[in-house]
User: Fold this.
Amino acid sequence: MLPIRVHQLASSNFIKVSNDATAKDVMKLFLNRKQDIACVYKHEHFLGIVTKYSLYRLLLENEAFDAVIEPVIIKNVVTLNENDYLIYGKKLLIEKNIAHAVVLNEAGHVTGILATAEVISGLITDTKSSANQLSSLVNSLEDGIISVNLEMRITSVNTAAVTIIEIQKDEFLNLSILDISHTLFKNLKDSITTKKSFVKKVSFSKATTIATFIPIIEWDVVIGAIVVLKEITELEKIAKELKTTKSIEKTLDSALELSYDGVLITDSEGIITRANHGILSLLGYQSTKEVINQHIKILLPEIPADKSILHNESIAGELLQIKGQQAILSQMPIIEEGKTIGAIFKFIFKQLEDWKDLLQQMERLETEISYYRGELLKVSLENNPFGLIISKNKQINSLKNDAYTAAQSFSNILLTGESGTGKELFAAGIHQASGRPGAFITVNCGAIPEELLESEFFGYADGAFTGAKKGGKPGKFELAKSGTLFLDEIGDMPLSLQVKILRVLQEKEFEAVGGIKTIQADVRILAATNKDLLAMVQDGSFRRDLYYRLHVIQLHIPPLRERLEDLSLLSEHFINKFKSKTYKQINGITNEALEKLAQHKWPGNVRELENVLERAFHFTASNWIDAENIHLDQSRIQPIELPQQEVRQSPLQSNGLNRKELINNTEKSLLIEALTKTDGNRTKAAEMLGISRSSLYYRIEKFQIKEESSFKIEE
Assistant:
């Protein structure tokens, strides 16, 4: 079904009035025609619109019905082209927060008015039509489909399922699935509980099926489950006749674990030993003799067969382009006594285009606006503060756990790592996990002119300098009250400001530029840098005392080149992100393209990867991003070799300690380090740590630090 265009729903019976018409004249037209908007013309030239609300304002101001409407004509009118899609019209009305839009033809003449009510009516009609088409398609499928809700009651069933299970369709609806089959009940329950899809062989009185159990997930919440029943009664009979050797028996048992439209089976060398009629249809062959004994790499170079044949890896549900037709590939090795004896390949391709078209149409009828999606994302991040950090790398996932533990403390945190590794994402996650009620405020210390830095941090009072905003302006410290202040690129902060930042961290208070009032600073500090701060301390470009104030807990984020296993996951994430902003349909990225990405040094890390994929997304002419679409400019981009700073392992990396012990151990380590570097001079150690001498004595006593602790006490 074609998308609805604006001219199909726009009202052509709209009111036209002259610019010298009176309020009384227009109001009569509104009442007689039951409309609340009119197009205003002057000598057949369109000037704008007048609404009943603008007439109300006119009457309130003039208190005369014979007042001319000229003063209240709205000339900055929101317009649509009559050939625009309705979905665009809906988006425009929402963005502009208006109830009507004027519809123009290609010549720029007004042809109608589109109102919110017509948009809603059109979308409802279109949705119902798509739902009916979807229902018809489901009923025409050869596979049986049954869906259940969280109470395990049947919510829908198609004709094929009725035939397989042999029960009247009317008896299905709202019936507990347990009354139909205990096996279906158990496996659907498992799918809901685990949120995972899996395949099982399920037998009924007169039919044997391969059942695929799939959880139904909406907005990351499981709302039910669905089972797809593929009848294999005849195939099972054939399988029993092929049990001539133990290897063939094991091969067929593994094949029955997959639901399929087309199946290929190979030996351990990749030579095809079995093929069904479905795969012949996909490849365009008439007989299995044309396929058997061929090497799968020659017949199907598009698929990553070596993953199962050589590396014992399985693939579940990868979308590929095979012989000009889209197909979903699943593959798995066949293992006997720990040895790979072959592999089985499953291809689902029948009716795939029908499903795709309907799903795309349903997606275009999405009526949720961005506000609600943003709110949902906030709720999601409350439960998983580091959910936006995409990785399956053990080091990154361990770093997330450390960051969550550190977030529960009151200590300052220093995030280190190369540009583009995601330091700001970690900082935002730490703030979210900390539970601090205030705002998360970010300051890029390298992007603000030095002469403006002080006023940016501390704000300024009324009349503090020429050009100052009347009433003054709050600074970042004040805006981050009870929250978190993230100092990005801290290594670029000038020494003059470092002194003032250190004072705020020590005294917990500050004064605005030109002000006399002391402001309390209840702020948690997070800092990030891609520089070696310790080396900067040694060459005098960064204050030692500020370094130790910030370096209470350090989290180092590894570069992308050290976690290349994330390339596939990150690529899928970015492609889905790009797809959400356009109607362009890109299915994914090929293995050849991923291999090309894996050979790059990635000096710009994840940010560079996103930019490379965004360009490839827009310029690829197919449904897949291939190696030829990946452009890596090696001549202009040189890998950044950052100096490696030797950092003692954070106590947060010890899994055996609780959070209180972690923070205490960190503080104790810093005390011992300061005393060691000052040869036990407590006055100098207190200055280095930015605390008073009495506070130092209290902490030495609290942690029972003795003179034997590798430093010499000097009074």
Residues 36 and 52 are 5 Å apart (CA to CA).
